[in-house]
Predict the 3D structure of the following.
Amino acid sequence: MIFSFSNSGFRDPETGVYNQTYFMEVFNREWHRHARDCQSLALLYITPHIHDSVKNPHLLECFTQQLQESLLRSTDLIARINHNKFALGLFNITEAGTETVLKRIHEHIESFNNEFVKEHAYRIEYKVVACVCLPRQQQRIENLFTYVDKQLIELEHKNDSHNSALYSLH
Protein backbone atom coordinates (compact mmCIF):
# COMPACT_ATOMS: atom_id res chain seq x y z
CA MET A 1 0.00 0.00 0.00
CA ILE A 2 1.34 3.41 -0.92
CA PHE A 3 1.22 6.00 1.84
CA SER A 4 -0.79 9.06 0.94
CA PHE A 5 0.44 12.37 2.28
CA SER A 6 -2.70 14.10 1.04
CA ASN A 7 -4.86 12.86 3.91
CA SER A 8 -2.35 11.87 6.58
CA GLY A 9 -2.92 14.99 8.66
CA PHE A 10 -6.63 14.62 9.20
CA ARG A 11 -7.04 10.86 9.66
CA ASP A 12 -6.70 8.83 12.82
CA PRO A 13 -3.86 6.37 12.13
CA GLU A 14 -5.40 3.47 14.10
CA THR A 15 -8.91 3.53 12.65
CA GLY A 16 -8.63 5.50 9.41
CA VAL A 17 -11.54 7.79 10.28
CA TYR A 18 -11.15 11.55 10.57
CA ASN A 19 -9.44 13.00 13.62
CA GLN A 20 -10.96 15.42 16.11
CA THR A 21 -9.34 18.52 14.60
CA TYR A 22 -10.72 17.87 11.13
CA PHE A 23 -14.15 16.94 12.50
CA MET A 24 -14.41 20.12 14.57
CA GLU A 25 -13.37 22.26 11.61
CA VAL A 26 -15.98 20.72 9.29
CA PHE A 27 -18.71 20.59 11.95
CA ASN A 28 -18.16 24.28 12.79
CA ARG A 29 -18.43 25.24 9.12
CA GLU A 30 -21.60 23.16 8.72
CA TRP A 31 -23.06 24.60 11.94
CA HIS A 32 -22.87 28.12 10.54
CA ARG A 33 -24.18 27.07 7.13
CA HIS A 34 -27.12 25.22 8.73
CA ALA A 35 -27.89 28.25 10.93
CA ARG A 36 -27.94 30.48 7.85
CA ASP A 37 -30.09 28.02 5.83
CA CYS A 38 -32.37 27.02 8.76
CA GLN A 39 -31.49 23.32 8.43
CA SER A 40 -31.15 20.84 11.26
CA LEU A 41 -28.14 18.66 11.96
CA ALA A 42 -27.31 15.89 14.41
CA LEU A 43 -24.32 15.11 16.57
CA LEU A 44 -23.81 11.52 17.73
CA TYR A 45 -21.29 10.22 20.25
CA ILE A 46 -20.45 6.51 20.24
CA THR A 47 -18.33 4.66 22.78
CA PRO A 48 -17.41 1.05 22.08
CA HIS A 49 -16.54 -1.02 25.15
CA ILE A 50 -13.69 -3.32 24.21
CA HIS A 51 -12.29 -5.25 27.13
CA ASP A 52 -8.51 -5.06 27.57
CA SER A 53 -8.26 -8.85 27.50
CA VAL A 54 -9.40 -8.94 23.87
CA LYS A 55 -6.18 -9.01 21.87
CA ASN A 56 -7.18 -7.98 18.38
CA PRO A 57 -5.18 -5.02 17.05
CA HIS A 58 -7.68 -4.29 14.27
CA LEU A 59 -10.85 -4.61 16.32
CA LEU A 60 -11.40 -0.86 16.69
CA GLU A 61 -10.80 -0.41 12.98
CA CYS A 62 -13.42 -3.11 12.24
CA PHE A 63 -15.85 -1.40 14.61
CA THR A 64 -15.44 1.98 12.90
CA GLN A 65 -15.84 0.29 9.54
CA GLN A 66 -19.28 -0.86 10.69
CA LEU A 67 -20.10 2.72 11.62
CA GLN A 68 -18.95 3.99 8.23
CA GLU A 69 -21.00 1.36 6.42
CA SER A 70 -24.10 2.46 8.32
CA LEU A 71 -23.68 6.00 6.97
CA LEU A 72 -25.08 6.09 3.45
CA ARG A 73 -24.74 9.78 2.62
CA SER A 74 -21.43 11.17 1.50
CA THR A 75 -21.95 14.27 3.64
CA ASP A 76 -22.10 12.28 6.89
CA LEU A 77 -18.91 12.50 8.89
CA ILE A 78 -17.27 10.19 11.43
CA ALA A 79 -14.24 11.00 13.56
CA ARG A 80 -12.32 9.71 16.54
CA ILE A 81 -12.64 12.19 19.39
CA ASN A 82 -10.43 10.43 21.92
CA HIS A 83 -9.18 6.96 22.83
CA ASN A 84 -12.65 5.47 23.14
CA LYS A 85 -15.15 8.00 21.77
CA PHE A 86 -16.28 8.63 18.21
CA ALA A 87 -18.41 11.46 16.86
CA LEU A 88 -20.73 11.40 13.88
CA GLY A 89 -21.99 14.53 12.19
CA LEU A 90 -25.22 14.15 10.23
CA PHE A 91 -26.11 17.22 8.22
CA ASN A 92 -29.47 18.42 6.91
CA ILE A 93 -31.27 15.65 8.77
CA THR A 94 -34.47 15.36 10.77
CA GLU A 95 -35.20 13.46 13.96
CA ALA A 96 -36.78 10.67 11.89
CA GLY A 97 -33.71 10.51 9.68
CA THR A 98 -31.48 10.33 12.73
CA GLU A 99 -33.57 7.46 14.10
CA THR A 100 -33.05 5.65 10.79
CA VAL A 101 -29.28 6.12 11.04
CA LEU A 102 -29.33 4.87 14.65
CA LYS A 103 -31.23 1.78 13.52
CA ARG A 104 -28.67 1.13 10.77
CA ILE A 105 -25.81 1.55 13.25
CA HIS A 106 -27.40 -1.01 15.58
CA GLU A 107 -28.00 -3.44 12.69
CA HIS A 108 -24.42 -3.18 11.40
CA ILE A 109 -22.85 -3.61 14.83
CA GLU A 110 -25.20 -6.48 15.69
CA SER A 111 -24.29 -8.24 12.45
CA PHE A 112 -20.59 -7.70 13.19
CA ASN A 113 -21.05 -8.99 16.75
CA ASN A 114 -22.79 -12.14 15.51
CA GLU A 115 -19.74 -12.99 13.39
CA PHE A 116 -17.19 -11.82 15.95
CA VAL A 117 -18.67 -13.85 18.81
CA LYS A 118 -18.30 -17.08 16.80
CA GLU A 119 -14.51 -16.76 16.87
CA HIS A 120 -13.89 -14.88 20.11
CA ALA A 121 -16.85 -15.58 22.42
CA TYR A 122 -17.01 -11.84 23.08
CA ARG A 123 -19.37 -9.08 21.98
CA ILE A 124 -18.56 -5.42 21.59
CA GLU A 125 -20.93 -3.47 23.75
CA TYR A 126 -21.42 0.21 22.99
CA LYS A 127 -23.42 3.30 23.83
CA VAL A 128 -24.74 5.88 21.35
CA VAL A 129 -26.21 9.29 22.08
CA ALA A 130 -27.70 11.38 19.29
CA CYS A 131 -28.93 14.95 19.44
CA VAL A 132 -30.76 16.73 16.64
CA CYS A 133 -30.40 20.49 16.64
CA LEU A 134 -31.53 23.44 14.56
CA PRO A 135 -28.59 25.84 14.89
CA ARG A 136 -29.23 29.53 15.33
CA GLN A 137 -26.72 32.33 15.01
CA GLN A 138 -27.04 33.26 18.69
CA GLN A 139 -26.44 29.67 19.87
CA ARG A 140 -23.01 28.49 20.85
CA ILE A 141 -21.83 25.31 19.15
CA GLU A 142 -20.04 24.32 22.38
CA ASN A 143 -23.43 23.90 24.06
CA LEU A 144 -24.33 21.06 21.66
CA PHE A 145 -21.07 19.21 22.34
CA THR A 146 -21.42 19.71 26.10
CA TYR A 147 -25.01 18.52 26.05
CA VAL A 148 -24.26 15.38 24.03
CA ASP A 149 -21.26 14.58 26.23
CA LYS A 150 -23.40 14.94 29.36
CA GLN A 151 -26.11 12.68 27.93
CA LEU A 152 -23.51 10.05 27.01
CA ILE A 153 -22.10 10.08 30.55
CA GLU A 154 -25.60 9.62 31.95
CA LEU A 155 -26.30 6.74 29.55
CA GLU A 156 -22.97 5.11 30.46
CA HIS A 157 -23.90 5.15 34.15
CA LYS A 158 -27.30 3.54 33.66
CA ASN A 159 -27.34 -0.16 34.44
CA ASP A 160 -29.92 -1.17 31.90
CA SER A 161 -29.80 -2.75 28.48
CA HIS A 162 -30.48 0.46 26.56
CA ASN A 163 -27.48 1.30 24.43
CA SER A 164 -28.76 4.44 22.70
CA ALA A 165 -30.70 7.63 23.26
CA LEU A 166 -32.00 10.35 20.95
CA TYR A 167 -32.53 13.96 22.06
CA SER A 168 -33.50 17.27 20.51
CA LEU A 169 -31.88 20.52 21.47
CA HIS A 170 -33.66 23.77 20.66
